[in-house]
């Protein structure tokens, strides 16, 4: 209760400070903290209100005239308490600083040849539709396609509210089981694609020494045929200390440079976050959302219309809707599991 009071007092202080006014940078910092605390304080107020109502109803039991009414109210209030307490616990959990950030989505085919590339293209469309449903911006930075319409590599920049918070559990190996369109005997093939979701890095998050970069311009090339782009506009940036290489192949060389730098910053930021996570926990495999992309996280079984997320043993039999971008049930379940694990760690 002392902690709840401290949070409430801090919120009131921020509210008063903002009403007085301050310089731009200071005001922005106050506004962000105020915005972050607001949902927490709302849950604190709801919890306190319920406790007050319960105390009042229990006191009414001693009043013969009010006892009958109180006997109805007390059980209902007590039944509501666990749900309100759980909501408050979740609100009090430490927030991932990257949750509110935009994200970089990277998709690449794994084992399975052409079928893997086609599945990677299906995943790209799935995420595009999910972003459209959320009202998020979806901007392709790098897109290399195969002759059959599969994806060799794609990098997209996604902007909107709580983008990384909703997409961060998608990082990993996605496996598909289905009959390829090129399979004449109807045999089910298994292939895979790798998804990486990285929080977008701001200048304050990561600094890059210009001397650590090698920047090359090169001729762009599209998917083939009429899509070939023959201008020398593509940009490739190599970060020499880490060996990271990023490319962007739009028509504007200046825009390509900016886009490639965005991707590079995101990858370096993700590496730094991973390094800090490693130091905090020797057993990263136990952490949901740790971003470990070496394991299979999900299987899409088309013949059975089934999706299974192996991290939480969730199986859904509505694969068609999921491939159309209906991902909220999966994301909600993964978020709830991550919150439960975090609460368990805090109670140790």
Give a quick precis of the structure.
With 348 residues, the protein is an alpha+beta fold.
**Count of individual helical segments:** 8
Give the total of beta strands. Answer: 11
End-to-end Cα distance, whole Å, is: 19 Å
Taking Cα atoms only, what radius of gyration do you get, to the nearest Å? 25 Å
Helix/strand structural class:
alpha+beta
Shape: flat
Largest sheet: 8 strands, mixed
Unreliable runs: 223-230, 282-294
Which bin fits the share of residues in helices?
A: 40-55%
Average of pLDDT? 82
Strand order of the largest sheet: 2-3-1-5-4-9-10-11
Note the beta-strand portion.
15-25%
What's the order of the H and E elements?
HHHEHEEHEEEEEHEEEHH
Oligomeric status: single chain
Describe the structure in your own words.
- By secondary structure, this protein is an alpha+beta fold.
- The protein has 8 helices and 11 strands.
- The chain is flat, with a radius of gyration of 25 Å.
Give the helix/strand layout.
Layout: H1 2-20, H2 24-60, H3 67-92, E1 103-109, H4 113-134, E2 137-145, E3 151-159, H5 163-167, E4 172-178, E5 189-199, E6 213-218, E7 234-239, E8 244-248, H6 253-280, E9 296-301, E10 306-309, E11 314-316, H7 319-323, H8 328-346
Parallel strand pairs: 4-9
Antiparallel strand pairs: 1-3, 1-5, 2-3, 4-5, 6-7, 7-8, 9-10, 10-11
What are its keywords?
alpha+beta, 11 strands, 348 residues, eight-stranded mixed sheet
């Amino acid at each position: 209760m002392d902690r709840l009071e401290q949070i409430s007092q801090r919120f009131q202080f921020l509210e008063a400070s903002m009403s007085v006014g301050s310089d731009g940078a200071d005001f922005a910092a106050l506004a962000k903290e105020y915005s972050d605390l607001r949902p927490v304080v709302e849950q604190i107020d709801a919890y306190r209100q319920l406790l007050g109502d319960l105390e009042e109803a229990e006191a009414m039991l001693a009043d013969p005239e009010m006892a009958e009414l109180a006997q109805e109210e007390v059980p209902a209030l007590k039944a509501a308490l666990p749900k309100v307490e759980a909501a408050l616990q979740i609100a009090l959990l430490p927030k991932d600083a990257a949750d509110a950030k935009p994200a970089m989505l990277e998709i690449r085919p794994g084992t399975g040849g052409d079928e893997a590339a086609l599945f990677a293209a299906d995943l790209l469309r799935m995420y595009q539709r999910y972003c459209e449903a959320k009202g998020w911006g979806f901007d392709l930075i790098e897109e290399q396609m195969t002759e059959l319409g599969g994806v060799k590599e794609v990098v997209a920049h996604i902007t909107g509210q709580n983008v990384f918070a909703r997409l961060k559990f998608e990082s990993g190996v996605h496996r598909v089981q289905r009959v390829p369109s090129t399979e004449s005997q109807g045999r089910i093939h298994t292939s895979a694609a790798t998804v990486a979701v990285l929080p977008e890095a701001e200048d304050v998050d990561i600094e890059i020494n210009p001397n650590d970069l090698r920047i090359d311009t090169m001729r762009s090339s599209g998917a083939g045929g009429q899509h070939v782009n023959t201008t020398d506009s593509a940009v490739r940036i190599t970060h020499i200390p880490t060996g990271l290489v990023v490319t962007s192949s739009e028509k504007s060389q200046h825009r390509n440079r900016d886009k490639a730098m965005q991707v590079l910053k995101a990858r370096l930021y993700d590496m730094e976050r991973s390094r800090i996570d490693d130091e905090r926990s020797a057993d990263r495999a136990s952490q949901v959302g740790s971003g470990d992309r070496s394991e299979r996280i999900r299987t899409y079984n088309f013949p059975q219309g089934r999706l299974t997320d192996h991290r939480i043993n969730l199986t859904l039999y509505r694969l068609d809707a999921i491939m159309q971008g209906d991902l909220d049930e999966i994301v909600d379940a993964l978020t709830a599991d991550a919150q439960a694990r975090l609460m368990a760690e805090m109670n140790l």
